[in-house]
């Protein structure tokens, strides 16, 4: 989401865009609903969740691939050497899955009929384009960087199959502990 999001008179974002904030708004609303049971707040925020899907999906092509538009800040981590091309789709997918779960809990699935297909396309693209089967890890960017951030966000997003996520070589092995290899 933008660094500032204004609700009134109509939902609008400021000029500065932070993709992580946009993608993580729905999980925040979902977490609040689960923790507090406050359905009224979740219902009140639902139109903003739906509106933010447009911004969240903006850098995702019809093939499900994430393409950094260059005019958004993709934070993920403070490390300037971190390639974010793998963590980006993980963050987006995590948000999309939370949006779908929130829709289910609120009985609002009809508001987001496109979401299951968008998630499926992104998962397929991430498995195809980011997974290095030989290494058993996800790689990011032209340098094929391996980082904890990429592994974590893609795992949280449900991209690796359960048996892959549990595999020792995915969970640890040669990934350096200082974020970036």
Could you describe the 3D structure shown?
- The chain has 181 residues and is mainly α.
- The chain has a single domain (5-171), classed as Alpha/alpha barrel (Glycosyltransferase).
- The protein has eight helices and four strands.
- The chain has helices at 19-23, 25-36, 39-57, 87-106, 115-130, 148-156, 162-166, 168-171, and strands at 5-6, 12-13, 131-132, 137-138.
- Strands 1-2 form a two-stranded antiparallel sheet. It has a two-stranded antiparallel ribbon with strand order 3-4.
- Helix 3 runs antiparallel to helix 4 (87-106), helix 4 packs antiparallel against helix 5 and helix 4 (87-106) packs parallel to helix 6 (148-156).
- The two termini are 29 Å apart.
Distinctive features:
mainly alpha, two-stranded antiparallel ribbon, 181 residues, 8 helices, Glycosyltransferase
Question: Quick gist of this model?
Answer:
The chain is mainly alpha-helical and 181 residues long.
Topology:
Elements: E1 5-6, E2 12-13, H1 19-23, H2 25-36, H3 39-57, H4 87-106, H5 115-130, E3 131-132, E4 137-138, H6 148-156, H7 162-166, H8 168-171
Antiparallel strand pairs: 1-2, 3-4
Shape: globular
Number of helices: 8
Radius of gyration: 17 Å
Question: Which regions contain 5 or more consecutive residues with pLDDT less than 50?
Answer: 171-181
Q: Write down how many β-strands occur, each being a DSSP E stretch of 2 or more residues.
A: 4
Q: What does the average pLDDT come to?
A: 83
How much beta, percentage-wise?
under 5%
Topology as a string of helices (H) and strands (E): EEHHHHHEEHHH
The CATH top-level class label: Mainly Alpha
What portion of residues is helical?
40-55%
Q: How would you name the oligomeric state of the polypeptide chains in this document?
A: single chain
**Total number of domains:** 1
Determine the structural class based on helices, strands and strand pairing.
Answer: mainly alpha
